Amino acid sequence: MKIIRAKDYHDMSRKAANIISAQVIMKPNCVLGLATGGTPVGTYKQLIDWYNKGDVDFSEVTTVNLDEYRGLPRENPQSYWSFMHDNFFNYVNIDPSRINLPDGTNMDAEGECKRYDEVIHNVGGIDLQLLGIGHDGHIGFNEPGAAFELGTHCVTLTDETIEANKRFFDKKEDVPRQAYTMGIKTIMQARKVLMVVNGKGKAEIVKKAFFGPVTPEVPASILQMHPDFTLVGDEEALCLI
Ligand code: PGA
């Protein structure tokens, strides 16, 4: 595990974007595993900026996103498909046919999860997976207690996650109750994992996840066992370690 200390959110975003651009420059046809949430937005902004300056080219890159709400069509502004287009894909030269997310409108959970695992397998696996971390230690939508050996699966969101995500919706009742998510096994199979974390509110969970025992109760703790895991955090998030 490598820990990179950044001064603040802006610095964290630049450092993470640097690692992602290095990956794309070294392997232009790489597979990037991408994440939604507030934390990676600055990283995407920085990548867009470097794309506009001609420093990085996404034309051959394939992307697979971590998760999607079950039941939300792509066009819904709160879908992760919309989030990724609004915050990243619409502003770079990524080939739309190489963008992959779970299909929230496929209500056949088993079929959709199987399809998504096959997509990841068929593109050759993930070269670099970007992650945020939830206050309860979740990665993707793998909530505390999630089995480490799962591939893509359907989850029922915990109340804490619904509470954290309601800021993106008009009201709490609008937050979908279920999601399709890559499993911990899928994430652990990525060749590199890069986590971004910022703010005081995440300091406790960062300490617990990366300096406490490896346990399904803290899903991110398994990353201690990943052979190429990098944590980029700002001073506040890393203040307890
Ligand atoms: P956040 O979410 O970046 O919005 O804090 C992180 C997560 O839940 O994975």
- Name of the CATH class: Alpha Beta
Q: Name the beta content range.
A: 15-25%
What is the mean predicted local confidence, pLDDT? 96
Number of individual domains: 1
**Form type:** globular
Q: Report Rg.
A: 17 Å
N to C succession of SSEs: EHEHEEHEHEEHEHEHE
Q: Total number of β-strand segments? A: 10
As a percent range, the share of helical residues equals 25-40%
How is the biggest beta sheet arranged? Answer: 7 strands, parallel
For this structure, the CATH topology is: Rossmann fold
List the helices and strands and how they pair.
Layout: E1 2-6, H1 9-26, E2 31-34, H2 41-52, E3 62-65, E4 67-69, H3 80-87, E5 99-100, H4 109-122, E6 128-131, E7 153-156, H5 159-165, E8 178-181, H6 184-188, E9 192-197, H7 203-211, E10 229-234
Parallel strand pairs: 1-10, 2-3, 2-6, 3-5, 6-9, 9-10
Antiparallel strand pairs: 4-8, 7-8
Helix pairs in contact: 1-2
Bound molecules: 2-phosphoglycolic acid.
Task: Describe the protein's architecture and organization.
This protein has 241 residues and is an alpha/beta fold. The chain has one domain (2-234): Rossmann fold, CATH 3.40.50. It is 30% helix and 17% strand. It has seven helices and ten strands. The chain has helices at residues 9-26, 41-52, 80-87, 109-122, 159-165, 184-188, 203-211; strands at 2-6, 31-34, 62-65, 67-69, 99-100, 128-131, 153-156, 178-181, 192-197, 229-234. It has a seven-stranded parallel sheet, with helices on both faces. Helix 7 links the parallel strand 9 (192-197) and strand 10. The longest helix is centred in the first third of the chain and has 18 residues, at 9-26. The two termini are 13 Å apart. Bound molecules: 2-phosphoglycolic acid.
